[in-house]
């Protein structure tokens, strides 16, 4: 499978803002200011499950999850990080990394469908993306 044949699923394209590319994954921000919510999407065509990646790619994905999760934790100081690869709605392999607070709109339940998405303030999301890019070595 060639990385050049990869493309982002249309739903993820519509619902996210791109931060940039790590060696394996595209890093995205979900367009919902209710939560600091990131996605990692391995740039591998037809990958639906983590086991669809070879062992080296799985290790790289774990490294990238750890790097992004640590950066998100340092920037947002959450009460809890939620990290999951569900894919029940969008089949393309993607990993959610969500900074949760006991005061957020969905706590302690999952974030999906708890409240309508809240639009980001353009300046705030740009500052958030800039901070993330510095922390995960994309700038």
Automatic annotation (TrEMBL):
<feature type="domain" description="HIT">
    <location>
        <begin position="38"/>
        <end position="107"/>
    </location>
</feature>
<dbReference type="InterPro" id="IPR026026">
    <property type="entry name" value="HIT_Hint"/>
</dbReference>
<dbReference type="Pfam" id="PF01230">
    <property type="entry name" value="HIT"/>
</dbReference>
<dbReference type="GO" id="GO:0003824">
    <property type="term" value="F:catalytic activity"/>
</dbReference>
<dbReference type="InterPro" id="IPR011146">
    <property type="entry name" value="HIT-like"/>
</dbReference>
<protein>
    <recommendedName>
        <fullName>HIT domain-containing protein</fullName>
    </recommendedName>
</protein>
<dbReference type="InterPro" id="IPR036265">
    <property type="entry name" value="HIT-like_sf"/>
</dbReference>
């Amino acid at each position: 499978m060639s990385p050049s044949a990869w493309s982002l699923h249309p739903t993820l394209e519509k619902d996210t803002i791109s931060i940039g590319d790590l060696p394996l994954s595209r890093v995205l921000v979900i367009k919902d200011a209710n939560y600091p919510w990131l996605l990692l999407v391995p740039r591998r065509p037809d990958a639906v499950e983590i086991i669809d990646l070879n062992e080296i790619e799985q290790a790289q994905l774990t490294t990238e999850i750890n790097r992004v999760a640590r950066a998100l934790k340092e920037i947002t100081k959450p009460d809890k990080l939620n990290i999951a690869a569900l894919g029940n709605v969008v089949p393309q392999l993607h990993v959610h990394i969500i900074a949760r607070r006991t005061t957020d709109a969905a706590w302690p339940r999952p974030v999906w469908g708890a409240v309508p998405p809240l639009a980001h303030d353009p300046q705030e999301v740009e500052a958030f993306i800039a901070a993330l890019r510095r922390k995960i070595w994309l700038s």
